Amino acid sequence: MAVRRQVLSDQHVDRAEAGKDEFIEEWQDFISRYAWGEIWTRPGLDRPMRSAITLTALIAGGHWGEFEMHVRAALRNGLTREQIKEVLLQSAIYLSVPSANNAFSHARAVFDRLDAQEESTS
Question: In Å, how far from its chain's centre is CA 27?
Fold first, then answer.
């Protein structure tokens, strides 16, 4: 749970935990134990590399809501916007130009929301 909070933010995890009910409780437990407790904590890759891989996989699968969440997580994990752009350009070659085009649109939307939040708190 600590890694999940570090990568996705306390706010995200608190929302997910608050939304648990009898139907989804086991799913949330599964994700916490396996994705965040087993995979994201392995020593073989650092978090920025895991974020780059995750972004690519989400583009490949067309999972745009999760992609946006992981764009924010990638920034939290130390990737720069420039590095995220490079991941998206790389994905155009190995996935498809339309997929990368969609990824750029979603990433820019995330960046725009983050910039607006920053401006409102300044």
Answer: 18
Identify the structural domains of the chain with CATH numbers, from first to last: 1-42 (no CATH), 46-122 (1.20.1290.10)
Query: What are the CB-based long-range contacts (under 8 Å, 24+) for 62-69?
Result: 62/99, 62/102, 64/102, 64/106, 67/103, 67/106, 67/107, 68/106, 68/107, 68/109, 68/110, 69/8, 69/12
Neighbouring CB atoms inside 10 A of 7's CB total: 23
pTM, two decimal places: 0.91
Residues 55-78 have pLDDT tens digits of 999 999 999 999 999 999 999 999
